[in-house]
Amino acid sequence: MTTVGILGGTGPAGRGVAVRLASAGYEVAVGSRDAERAYEIASRLEPRGTGKVRGVSNSDAAKCDVVIVATPWESTLETLREIAGDLENKIVVSMVNAMQKQGREMQPVFPAAGSCAQEIAAVLPTSKIVTAFNHLPAAQMEDLDSGLDADVILSGSDNEAMAEVAVMVSAMPGLHAIEAGSLALAGTIEAFTSVCISVNIRNKAHSYVKLEGIAR
Ligand SMILES: NC(=O)c1ccc[n+]([C@@H]2O[C@H](COP(=O)([O-])OP(=O)(O)OC[C@H]3O[C@@H](n4cnc5c(N)ncnc54)[C@H](OP(=O)(O)O)[C@@H]3O)[C@@H](O)[C@H]2O)c1
Question: Which of 71, 154, 193, 195 to mutate to test ligand 1, by most ligand atoms within 8 A of the CB atom?
């Protein structure tokens, strides 16, 4: 079975993905700057999955078959530069969004390359970058009983890599992968997250993305 490492997997976003990946049968390595912290958090997650989550350093997580980036945008490129060698030629999934709070809403920040994912692609030129999970609410992801039934919009410039990620995502309970297109779409996908969060703040809601008019 494919092993999946999650960089910054100790945060809410990474934990939610870890729980659902483990439920789908994947071997998950939750990565951290501090392997002991990852071990402690992973052992709390484990009973909720299928005993398939372990806690490791980010550099050990980077040795997995597929690697998910779940770090804050501000520290993402620095984190990736340290482990770039282990990510060569691999599928690297970015769920990273760049945004800033302005009053009661979140507003998107567009990195110079157009998106976090395209900046990541420039740092990891041989890796196959795919965006996924950008819009998912972490708390509902981590709670397998939350009733989450969400679409996950993917972008990536390597169609085979995007298709592999789509299979992984659709195997996770409550999630349906939808392939959108190339990494040129990543900026719009990432930026829409700030719309979702602002909607939730203004409407005291826990909404998520679900597209109509597409067969599943
Ligand atoms: N939260 C959500 O609902 C959600 C949903 C979809 C996508 N996202 C995206 O996913 C990413 C992670 O979100 P999050 O809410 O989980 O963020 P977070 O809690 O702020 O950070 C996640 C993990 O990143 C590591 N980290 C924090 N600061 C770091 C630094 N300066 N250098 C290296 N590692 C650092 C920490 O792990 P260690 O201290 O263990 O190293 C932390 O647990 C973000 O880009 C976010 O936009 C979030």
Answer: 71
* 30 and 157 Cβ atoms separated by less than 8 Å: no
Exposure string of 33-65, with b = 16+ CB inside 10 Å and e = fewer, is: bebeebbebbeebbebbbebbbbbbbbbbbbbe
Q: What residue segments make up the domains of the chain, in order of their start? A: 3-203
The topology under which CATH files domain 3-203 is Rossmann fold (3.40.50)
What global pTM score does this model have? 0.98
Distance 60 CA to ligand 1 centre (A): 17
Give 147 Cα–ligand 1 centroid separation in angstroms: 24
pLDDT tens, residue order, the chain (216 aa): 899 999 999 999 999 999 999 999 999 999 999 999 999 999 999 666 677 999 999 999 999 999 999 999 999 999 999 999 999 999 999 999 999 999 999 999 999 999 999 999 999 999 999 999 999 999 999 999 999 999 999 999 999 999 999 999 999 999 999 999 999 999 999 999 999 999 999 999 999 999 999 988
